[in-house]
Amino acid sequence: MSGRYDPELEDTLRDPELLRLAAMLSSAHTPEPPLDDAFKSGLRRELMQKAWEATERRGSWWRRLAAPPRVAWVGAAALVALIALVVVQTQGTGGNGEVVVGSPQSGGTAVQLQQPILVSFNQPMDHQSTEQAVQIVPATSVEFRWSGDTTLFVQPTSGNLAPNTQYQVTIGPGALTKGGKRLTSPKEFTFVTQPTTPSPGGGPSPTPGGGSVLTGQHRLTVLPGADYSPQWSPDSTTVYFVNAGGALQSAPVAGGQPRTLVPDGVSNPALSSGGDRIAFMRAGRLQVLNLSGGQTIGVAGGESATAVVWVKNRLYWAGPSGVFTTGPGGPGVGGGTVKLASNPDPSGSFISIAPDGAHAAFRSGGAILLVDVATGATTTLGRAAGSGSFQGWSPDGARIMHDGVIADMNGQTLARLPAGDPSWSLSGQIIVGTDSSLIEVNSDGTGLLQLATGSAFRQPAWAPDSSTFVFVRGGFLWAAGVPSGHQPQVSTIDQASAVVAAFMQARLAGDFDKARSFLDDNGKAVYAAGGPALIPGGDAGFRRYYILASEVDPTSPNTVRFVVRLIFGRGGPLERTLSEETLTLKRVSASDPFLIDRVTAGPVRDLGRGPVVVAVRITPSRVEVTFDSDLRPTTIAGVLLQDGQGSPVGGSVSYSDRTVTFSGLQLSAGAPYRLVVLPTVQDVGNRNVVSEYDLDLVGPGADVSAGSAPQTPVIVLPSASRAHAPAAEVRDFPPLPAAAGFGVALNGAGAVRVSAGAGVRT
Amino acid sequence: MTDPTRDEEKRLVEHAKRDPREFGALYDRHFQQIYRFVYSRVREQTAAEDVTSEVFMKALKAMPRYQDTGRPFAAWLYQIAVNAIADRYRTLRPAQPLEDFHDLSVAGPAIEEQAAQRDEVRRIWAIVEELPSQQRTALVMKFQEDMKIEDIALAMGKTPGAVKLLIHRGVSRLRDEAGVLRPLD
């Protein structure tokens, strides 16, 4: 048995037979216990609510943030941002006794779903009148809880917020202070929620056949450092790392004793693209070791660097003064130093530089900023005042992983990741190591697959060959491979998605030439011939986009269709309209790049005027249709699922937590189905679906070309003949957890039955 | 290009100490391992949920008083969990058979060899479950949770020497009770 070597056990047990027993015990690990996701998310909500209450007892959050001790921590720049945040959120200064309203969620672009809406006031409020003055769009049944008289928790009764939805929260002038003073004007804030979890059923597909599909798993060495900073040689044969004693070592992946290159004090190692030099920090100095000659040189200006990377054999580093690179001669060749960007916040620090050198991650207070190295412009990732966590880059530097999501360089969340340590391979697959499993996921957040369970797989790092990786487990550094059936590969969808993302980003940025570069002649003709605007005019207020659906054409693996939703708003924070475009991407062969060949545009639809489908999940036996609003249950008969002949499919229909579920189905793989949402469907605010909404579906299991697991169907194509009918968002997502601890329900008449102050807010 | 895990944990802890609303990140980071540990001790989902809730609620409440001793934050959570489980065990014993809970890991030998050892390993772990509570906890933390002895000591409120003794006695007792073992090599 290849039990791990554990010096602690050697020292403790000593006896060979006891050590063999220990090895046997170590070789067995606990499978994941049964876990109710609703419990996990419910407990988190409960904890956060307690945390807010505790915070409130210590004083209003904006007061604490402005208090001197906090100022020191947050830093001057963060404080400026927070002050601006409060001013923007509150729409007033609070002078002359004015009621000031704030929310940490205000302006958020990727707000987590599992939390209440939080509203803070600068003075004690009358509960009843304030609750009655709360309006929420889209229509949402909520329950109210107070922490004291100044903090109001608005909890959707369905448990979570709706995904990818802009919420507009208004406190009307009917709200009274404890002293009877009215608001001088309605107070309003908005935020956008994050996408749904990509995994079907809330978790990755199980490992086929048991605990692991990994191959060649073997131990390389003992005890890498807490941050072992692995660096792979270009040929994927050697891994360089920092051990627990701070020594820079290299270990052949095939086996053999690690070699010590630098005895101690090493951090931030970075191997050059050619694999011939390795840079690292030691004693506060940036140094470069020539691996062939063995000589080490210091890099002028590299003192106190906190991030180091090579970009095409050119050394980049970031320190307290900003981001730098060496001159053309390279480090130590007299080429000088070039400053690329300044430090945006003297109290913060750079964390990492992207592999392409175009961006850097920067920590300022609790937030992660994305710094454009060329312009110095910064983008706050996630919550402005949150506890941001940087997790890595895509190999091309076009994506950043942070706080469990993948975001583009505008900070827009594109997909979610399982909680853990991610590593993004050159071929586009992401593995995520957790305390109990190893999960593979596509770079668009889909296709979760559990590769191994029962053990910790911390800090995995892909080799350049995208088939081998190292990880830390039980105090050892291990290497393993993924078997041929699971070898990471860039799916057709991933490749096409990257093109769509770049295309849409160029449109958002107003870069006409770049956007046009993703079109073939047919595509150019569509946008030039009175079709949708390639660069939506400034008046349109193009704000964001997201991919609703994607499918490889079953008849051609080199044709992929996407349904993209474009969100517009102008003259204020509200998103006003949406339009959808169906993009057909083609390539000649698998080695050619995708180009956009056909485009069809749906009509512009108003937002905020009635329920909108925001997610659809389909399996052979079940179709779940999620709306952004709570619906009147008596009207869900207007949600239909039809077969190719327009006849209703069998099965039963139920409604819960904004989701209409068709269950007991026997959908045929590849067969056409249509989801129809009639205008008779009404939300709890008595607003109807604006116009009939049709969505063509294909029975799951047909999309074999994308390599999807059978239970991961999600094939949606807007009907060409019904191009006027926009498609809905289609994503894999787990069932929304039931509300925990709230005695609120919609009764059969669509009214709201509550146990304590709650109601429909529209 | 990786996040410095330890430094990141220290940062998260410092943030959570200053502002309890930052505790969510620590919860996300440690929920799974604490829940798994608790479940392995109480063997019943509802009880595991109760105890896990108690652990994190207590941790949130005690966050301002948490002192970084250089050990992983998880060790502190384990400590709270051990105490919470002990409180529960005063009135409740695990009811579910344990034989099927432990399985061979991915880190062992070839599949076919694993299969041959599966029964033996289960048998040994079943004996672990019969050990005195503190020996059992020490063995679970060492062999199931991959914890270092100093962390186990912190979690159990004992000295590292005492933990080593518990492990030695536990494994020795396993040897005595398991009888003749199948050779491992």
Question: What structural keywords apply?
Answer:
heterodimer; A: 762 residues; Immunoglobulin-like; five-stranded antiparallel beta sheet; 10 helices; globular; B: 185 residues; mainly alpha; Rna Polymerase Sigma Factor, Chain: A; Arc Repressor Mutant, subunit A; 1% strand; disordered C terminus
As a percent range, the share of strand residues of chain B is: under 5%
Q: What is the CATH architecture annotation of the domain at 492-722 in chain A? A: Sandwich
The major sheet of chain B is characterized as:
none
Low-pLDDT runs of 5+ residues of chain A are 59-93, 197-210, 702-759
Beta-strand residue fraction of chain A: 35-45%
Using DSSP, what is the number of strands of chain B? 1
Dominant shape of chain B: globular
Q: What is the CATH architecture descriptor of the largest domain in chain B?
A: Orthogonal Bundle
